[in-house]
Amino acid sequence: MLRSPEEALKATLARVAPGTPLRDGLERILRGRTGALIVLGYDKQIESLCSGGFEIGIDFAPTRLRELAKMDGAIVCDKDVTKILRAAVQLVPDPSIETQESGTRHRTAERVAIQTGVPVVSVSQSMQIIALYVDGLRYVLEGSEKVLARANQALATLERYRARLDQVTSSLSALEIEAMVTVRDVAVTLQRHEMVRRISEEIAQYVLELGVDGRLLSLQLEELSTTRGADTVIRDYTDPETTDVDAAVVALQDIDQADLIDLNLIASVVGLPSGGDALDSIIQPRGYRLVSGLKAVPRAVAGRLVDHFGGLQNLMAATIDELMMVDGIGELRARNVREGLSRIAEASLLDRFL
């Protein structure tokens, strides 16, 4: 399966994260101030670009990488970085490939990565930086201290946005119980969901880059990440016959950061009424979001419940006998649904008015 450049970069970051043998070797090269050009993979195309050097085929070790970097030329490893296959190799990529780099080592690294799709690491002797080249992308590795400082700042931002998401979600639940939800309320909830998702993705990138140094950060991210995303909200307020929920989620994620404040745009891309006074119009939930939040109700059963009753107000008013008419709902589950919705209604109204 073909991967996007971003996915390939994430996979490469995992291979060079702190705590890995490769990162140890790269740090040794930096401290030794020798520089290096390392290819993370070997196939027929890479072989065709190699000239001279030595075929060694030894097990990978940070110390070996450091010693081999003292020689001129590139080092070629297997894709899993368990073997060092060749050393002191001259790489001869296509010179017509455009590159923004100026140094010979960096220009070669970028061209090889673009031409072959194989990740290449360049360690600069003069600049003392480690640069990754993956499918046309360039990424400069930084020390754990700098990355962790940015990650902690992003985590503090995530805490604030998650608290705000919880507030607007609770407010939306209360408005749903009272049948007073407007398109604006739904759009604000979707906006907060997307903001939390974007910040979480940014922190996940830091966790990946930090490797073993990001374990505590990973636990904090897991605690703050929301388990239910924007898809449940979209499913609750759009026509299932005309709206592709997955496509609507993608469209929401594709909104430019600067445009995410535009509630009309958010409403438009997910299939809600937009423009004019549409944001203040009343809209009725189907009930999927609240029902899917009940632990006793699987997603498939939640969908059947919503389809059977046609709206949250009908579902809230349903008796246990009426709930049992739905396929997959026995007496025990019907009671759990009835009691669960009652608890949600009570808690939401208390949160709103107290």
Automatic annotation (TrEMBL):
A GO MF term: diadenylate cyclase activity
Transferase as UniProt keyword: yes
Annotated transmembrane regions: none
Annotated DAC domain residues: 6-145
Coiled-coil spans in chain: 151-178
SUPFAM superfamilies associated with the record: RuvA domain 2-like, YojJ-like
Residues at which ATP binds: G73, L91, T104, R105, H106, R107, T108
Family listed: Belongs to the DisA family.
Record function comment: Has also diadenylate cyclase activity, catalyzing the condensation of 2 ATP molecules into cyclic di-AMP (c-di-AMP). c-di-AMP likely acts as a signaling molecule that may couple DNA integrity with a cellular process. Participates in a DNA-damage check-point. DisA forms globular foci that rapidly scan along the chromosomes searching for lesions.
Record's subunit section: Homooctamer.
HAMAP family named in the record: DisA (MF_01438)
Name of the protein this chain belongs to: DNA integrity scanning protein DisA
Species annotation: Arthrobacter psychrolactophilus
Gene: disA
